[in-house]
Amino acid sequence: MASSSLTQRNPTSSQPDGEQEQLETAPRPKRQHSLSERAMSHTLTTAADLANLLPTGTLLAFTLLIPVFTSNGSCDYPTHILTTVLLTLLSISCFLSSFSDSVKVDDNVYYGFATRKGMWVFNYPDPNGLGLPDLSKYRIRIVDWIHAVLSVLVFGAVALRDKNAVSCFYPAPEKGTKEVLDIVPIGVGVICGLLFLVFPATRHGIGYPVTGDEGRR
After folding, report:
1. Is residue 94, in this structure, part of any structural domain at all?
2. Which domain holds residue 168?
3. d(CA 69, CA 72)
4. Residue ranges of the alpha helices (H) in the chain?
5. What mean pLDDT do residues 174-198 have?
């Protein structure tokens, strides 16, 4: 009787141990999965924050054209050259947009580029500029050059966070290169974001939101 009771107790006592083992090992994959989700969420948030510092048109062109130019990351020699040209043109667009500005006249918005004497408005109907306010306050400043350089750096950081662009130029990166591609864009984004706070933008150029002119200078 004692032996039979032992044989009945042993299976029932060993079963909870097996279940306890499974309960202890089950959360580990979920934990790794949550960490990967956090990393992905952090990457997307960083990319979104960087995108807010760029002209809307340039960012939209990059988002739409980069998968086409890179063949979804599978670049050959012609697509590699075309992608390089595309990124160069978009970088120039970011640079020039930092010198663009807008002025409101009779509830109409007119755009132009800052010069040393003021602003050249290119879409105003009167070529003589009759009816425009004093444009001397829109003249080019040192902070415009700072914003132009920062915009190009931010665009480069955004491009390095795009999987199609990275796969085109670095299809099989080494471990060191991959670490650089993961760290440098985030570092550049943080530094540029802080510099944008130190030197806030006062222009409302092409691709940027337009607000009232009061208190802009």
Report:
1. yes
2. 49-99+142-202
3. 8
4. 2-25, 27-51, 56-69, 77-97, 142-160, 163-169, 175-198
5. 86
In angstroms, the CA 202 to CA 45 distance is: 25
Q: Of the ranges 55-59, 81-85, 131-135, 184-188, which is most confident?
A: 81-85
**121 and 174 together in one domain:** no
Q: What is the pLDDT of residue 128?
A: 72
Residue 172 lies in a domain: yes
- Residues 119 and 101 sit within 8 Å (Cβ to Cβ): yes
DSSP three-state, residue 119: strand
121 DSSP 8-state letter: E
Asked whether residue 44 carries a pLDDT value surpassing 70, the answer given is: no
Domain boundary among 91, 112, 139: 139
Interval 109-156: pLDDT, tens = 888 899 998 888 887 877 776 778 888 888 999 999 999 999 999 999
Q: In this structure, how many other beta carbons lie within 10 angstroms of the beta carbon of residue 33?
A: 10
Residue 207 lies in a domain: no
Signed CA dihedral, 74, 79, 84, 88: sign only = negative
